[in-house]
């Protein structure tokens, strides 16, 4: 009588080899995948910041036409400051500023400075945080190249004492100067 030992599966050794190969692939690819995810989050933040610049330009133009007092003259420049909360309140910004529990996620302001002499050398500066990344005093053209700061906590990332006084008077914001 002959016993037939036909194999109908994998040996333990074959399974261990496959598991080791998969583990090595994960170890090599894992950091790259994490970097891609992080890069995507940074690019989303930068795109959001550029969108905020665009709506602030629209707000500045409309406020200039309406002459509603939110544009101040300082030296040889007309200055406009809009906090994100004010841009949202006035209907320029559709971005949700708070999380589901009502805690602020996006904070900050945009400053616009336009020469009175009519030249097109306007500057747009932003100071902004979204609880993950933050930019402090970055011009619109610098956003894509800016180093995003990420210190891993959700405290306010910028000092409220840096807010120009025309920001406070123009928007009635609740930031306090100390």
Mean pLDDT: 80
How many H/I helices?
3
Count the beta strands. 5
So what's the oligomer here?
single chain
Enumerate the strands of the largest sheet in spatial order, edge to edge or round the barrel: 1-2-3-4-5
In helices, the fraction of residues equals 25-40%
**Which of globular, elongated, flat, extended, rod-shaped describes the shape?**
elongated
The low-confidence runs, each spanning 5 or more residues with pLDDT under 50, are none
Largest sheet: 5 strands, antiparallel
Cα-atom radius of gyration? 26 Å
Helices and strands, in order, run as HEEHEEEH
SS strand fraction: 15-25%
Structure class: alpha+beta
How far apart are the first and last residues' alpha carbons, in Å? 97 Å
């Amino acid at each position: 009588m002959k016993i037939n030992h036909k194999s109908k599966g994998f040996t333990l050794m074959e399974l261990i080899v496959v598991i080791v190969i998969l583990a090595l692939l994960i170890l090599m690819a894992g950091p790259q995948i994490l970097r891609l995810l992080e890069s995507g989050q940074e690019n989303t933040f930068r795109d959001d910041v550029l969108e905020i610049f665009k709506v602030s330009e629209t707000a500045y133009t409309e406020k200039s036409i309406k002459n509603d007092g939110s544009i101040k003259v300082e030296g040889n420049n007309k200055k406009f400051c809009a906090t994100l909360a004010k841009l949202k309140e006035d209907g320029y910004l559709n971005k949700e500023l708070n999380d589901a529990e009502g805690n602020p996620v996006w904070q900050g302001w945009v400053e616009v400075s336009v020469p009175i002499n009519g030249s097109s050398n306007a500057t747009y500066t932003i100071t902004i945080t979204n609880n993950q990344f933050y930019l402090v005093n970055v011009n619109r053209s610098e956003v894509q190249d800016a180093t995003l700061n990420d210190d891993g906590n959700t405290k306010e990332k910028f000092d409220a004492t840096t807010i120009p006084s025309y920001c406070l008077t123009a928007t009635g914001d609740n930031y306090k100067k100390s």
